[in-house]
Amino acid sequence: MPYLLEIKNRLLIICGGTILVTVILFLYKETLLFIILKPTMYQNTSLYLICTNITEGFMSYWYLVTIFCFHFFIIFLIIHAYFFMVPGIYQYEKKLIQFYLFIYLNFLLFLILIFYKILLPCSWDFFYKIISVNANNVITQQKTIKLFFEIKINEYLDFFFKLYFFCILLAQVFFVLSIKLNDVYKKSKFTSIKFYRKRLYFLFFILSTLITPPDVISQLIIGGIFILMLEVTIFVIILKNQYNDR
To answer: Residue 164 belongs to what domain range?
Structure first.
């Protein structure tokens, strides 16, 4: 069947593209490591990473490259799935898919930017200062125990990507929320949105508490950003539906 042949060819293109990207990224593995280290290199810290066995450096680089390649694989898969389905769907379905892809990509890119520019540096700076204060207290008290901060490369990667994937999960949450809000607008034109706003605001501050260090200012900033994202989403949904009604 022609569509089975097309699926086969697209899968071969996706796999071939992913393998090519893997080779290229592995050649520039030091650049990738610098990219994920950059947010924490300007926090007045003398950051360096250590390895404790002969294979740890290679495996850490491979882990880093694999995660980046997985992102490219998902992008290739979404692009090919979209162009495979487009000839067989209605025009309004095509516009709906494009709208939700636009919403999701904006959520994803914005939350990654927040993670990279605000969340990661603030978290790193907060915990590093605690270590520095404890070390200084030990030294001034003339105790024999001193604290020296040395982080392994795999531990830093775990810290980075756990926080990163939590933000990716938040993008999924906001995406599902936008779909629900779009359905609510079509049914009730947001007549009961005031009731849900309070609950959503409370939920956003709980989420900001989970992903930020125990710092009230950081929690308020991230919570405020989530609220702003909600209001912008509501505004875009209203504009989109009013435009379609004309």
So the answer is: 2-245
